[in-house]
Amino acid sequence: MSAENGHPESNGRAHDARAALGPQEARAVFRGGHSGPTTGWAPGHTQANLVSVPADWAYDMLLFCQRNPKPCPVLDVTDAGSWTTPLAPDADLRTDLPRYRVWADGDLVDEPTDVLAHWREDLVSFLIGCSFTFEWALSAAGVPLRHVDQGRNVAMYVTDRQCREAGRLRGPMVVSMRPVPPRDLAAAIRETSLLPAVHGAPVHCGDPGGLGIADLSEPDFGDPVTAEPDDIPVFWTCGVTPQAAVMASRPPFAITHAPGQMFVTDARDEQYRVA
Amino acid sequence: MSAENGHPESNGRAHDARAALGPQEARAVFRGGHSGPTTGWAPGHTQANLVSVPADWAYDMLLFCQRNPKPCPVLDVTDAGSWTTPLAPDADLRTDLPRYRVWADGDLVDEPTDVLAHWREDLVSFLIGCSFTFEWALSAAGVPLRHVDQGRNVAMYVTDRQCREAGRLRGPMVVSMRPVPPRDLAAAIRETSLLPAVHGAPVHCGDPGGLGIADLSEPDFGDPVTAEPDDIPVFWTCGVTPQAAVMASRPPFAITHAPGQMFVTDARDEQYRVA
């Protein structure tokens, strides 16, 4: 994904530039049509997954999230038709993400940079915690972020673990993976444990087979990442999980973010830290 | 509440007895008709608030909880008509709480020890985290529990803080209060911060006027507690909040637990601890 449009997020200099922007400025860039992964943007500000479904599917989605709180921690739910959220009062959810996915009967039908033409009055939007939020805590604790250093989107995988069903919604748990040096594993677990609203502690470390993942070099979403020889693969639940539920359960219509291209909010990561 | 039926939970010897019971045994006692506060029962096991509403109010209630996660942390939501939960597979939500409250149009119409006669096929039940769950962590950290020592229900107060509305539901935030010696305040905050699923850190310490509470000796629910001279009143959000929303918003029908008389689950407190 990161290389799809040749935008400057794929090198170190751009990393510095995007890190200098605040969340409002970052959203203005995306609103202007720029797309690409949001990892590394607007340091210290909470990023969110988006899934919008028709109102008659909203209860199923909210219940699905409640029953699967680790992959689907809900940060906000809009009223039907509303494209605003208290998490970023001046933002427009229809235009301010880098790239969207539009789904009909569970099939991907469009991947635009805004969804003004697709919007419906009955859409209820769910903003769900994203692991990019805790990357700042990892960085501050000295844990290297291989995908950021390599200018790539994070690697995400569909697992063989099924979520708990809710109404008409079912689907597999999706995870993101970051290679972590053994000396940093304790810090990685400790720091993310304290941020349960953005997936919290890892669900798995080590052998990807434990989650039914055959090949780390072929992620289902995002980019493969190059690990150092001693690195341990560490897996956190991922907010693409509701998107996988849309693919598996086929509601008549849905809008989501494109994986890794998140909604950057005005909220501070620190406000989700429990201690 | 604790003295309402003269049951032995109001003295120290009974405290020992109830602490010796596991959650299944405790529920059997309640199913047999015993009522009274569940503080101190079935050590180490998660306790939950209950609110059951007709299915056409379930989305509003789930959204209300999502928008007010600190007072209303959802631990489980049943399918419509179901009286079972994975939190205690052999339990019957209609009989296994010590005492219930039945509401019609927001008015309290009955306070029975089971709700078999009131049950409806369209009821969706919400189990919401309870601060009794973290009392074991407080105790283990050396924080005295004045209400338990005094054989009383915890003191609960309606505050002047309004919850964020959701659909037809609105209402004030309710809190529980425990007097904490100054030397134990840090431990009380630390221990409860690590249990966000059962209300987490306090919302307020000190002057009750800060929450619009006029007189600590007159709680809205539960019993007043006697503090030591140096004790600091510490306020945690309370799962009676959805019950206050029922009173304020007047859905046509609802069933709740009686304040302080909780559903004792098989879940372990430790599983809700984030670190």
Automatic annotation (TrEMBL), chains A, B:
Keyword Lyase: yes
Record key words, sorted: Lyase
InterPro entries: D-Glu_cyclase, Putative_hydro-lyase, UPF0317
Gene Ontology molecular function: any one: lyase activity
Pfam families: D-Glu_cyclase
EC number: 4.2.1.-
Domain of life: Bacteria
Sequence similarity: Belongs to the D-glutamate cyclase family.
Protein name per Swiss-Prot or TrEMBL: Putative hydro-lyase AT728_03095
